[in-house]
Structures are given as structure tokens and as C-alpha cells.
Amino acid sequence: xxxxxxxxxxxxxxxxxxxxxxxxxxxxxxxxxxxxxxxxxxxxxxxxxxxxxxxxxxxxxxxxxxxxxxxxxxxxxxxxxxxxxxxxxxxxxxxxxxxxxxxxxxxxxxxxxxxxxxxxxxxxxxxxxxxxxxxxxxxxxxxxxxxxxxxxxxxxxxxxxxxxxxxxxxxxxxxxxxxxxxxxxxxxxxxxxxxxxxxxxxxxxxxxxxxxxxxxxxxxxxxxxxxxxxxxxxxxxxxxxx
Length: 242
Fold this sequence. Notes:
It contains 8 helices and 7 strands. The chain has helices at residues 3-15, 21-30, 37-43, 55-61, 106-116, 136-145, 161-173, 183-199, and strands at residues 66-75, 81-89, 94-101, 125-128, 148-151, 223-229, 234-240. The radius of gyration is 28 Å and the shape is elongated. The chain folds into 2 domains: 3-43, no CATH class; 55-206, Ribonuclease H-like superfamily/Ribonuclease H (Nucleotidyltransferase, domain 5, 2-Layer Sandwich). The chain has 242 residues and is of the alpha/beta class. The mean pLDDT is 90.
């Protein structure tokens, strides 16, 4: 087939993305060019469909209105299993609320949401998985607070990436370094960690800032000193006058 005809097929299909191959065949015939439908199919330009909003786009577009919730399982020295409930605000990666229990229920989880958010400060969206602990009492509480649930797809932890990453950080930087004695001990450990996390831990997603913005300390502020926290479990660096 002549190059001019091939180019004309491409031009027609590009300029008229709603035209199907039969329409192009007919238009060419009116111009004295007789080609088969299969030929048009081979050479026409297939328009790209406008991309539908992806899950990643949803997370990015609504970051200021989003919180995620998830549970972290922690074994103790006596082989009990404790459940840590975490509420994470996406915008500044802040832990809005956390608590520990041996037996999580939908009623208990609903109560945690009420503690996490005063009625006038509730977020717009809440991402959760399909665990039964987010049952009717939990859903009713969210509805009453004006929070829209965004359940992730089954077996798709990647759809709750911020909470999953946060849980990974808690494990690596805190829980993997100690042996948990009991519920009270775990609450203290997590309280210390989140204090360090909010005030001193830099995040790449926050342009290497902290959830609670941390001012830059220039050389005029003094010498750099290392400060140990939580009995040396964490360290941060700051400038102090000599």
C-alpha cells in the first residue's frame, strides 16, 4: 500500500477518534480509495483512553483529608498477643491516636475513633481493610461523625501504604529492639517512640522534615550534640550553645 494512503488513514483516525474502521473505509471510498477494513485496522492510530483516576491519584489528591487505620500484632515475653491500633493522618504522617488491647472488637475500635477525633475535627475519608473488627458499630460511628469509609480491596495491603509503612517503621525502630513485657510496658514504649517520631524523625515524603515541623539550626546556634532518648533507644542531634 502506498505511503500516502497509510498516512491518510493515520491522519483520519487521529483527527476523528470516534470513527471506527468501517467509517474510515467508507470515507476513503468516497475519495476513490478502496481498502479493506483489516487494512484500516492495521494502520489507524488508536487513541489513548484518558487515564481513569488511580488509587495512587486518589491518595495524592485527598492527602489532607485522609487518615488510615490498621492493627499491629505484638507478642509479649509471656507469649500473649497484644493488638496495637494506629490512626495515621496522611498529610504530615502524624499518629493521631494509638491504643493497645488484648481483645479488639468493633465496639472498642469505634470508641478509639471517637477518642482520636473531636466531632468537629473529623477527617473526610478513612482507609481501612476488611477485618471484622471494622464491623457495624465501627461503621455506624463513622457515619455519625461524617467520615466516609474507603475499604481497600481484599488482600491488597498496598492500597493502605502509609499505614503499612508506618507499622514497618514501628517494628524496625522500636519493637524489634526490645522485649515487650505487658500492655503497660508496650504503651510506654510506643509513647516514647511516637514522641521521637513526631519531633525528630525526618521523612523523605516531607522533604526531610518531621511530622511536627523542625526548624533548621545553623552554626550560629552552637555546637552539635547527640541527645539520647528512651534510655538510649533513640538519638537525635541538635545544636546547643557551647
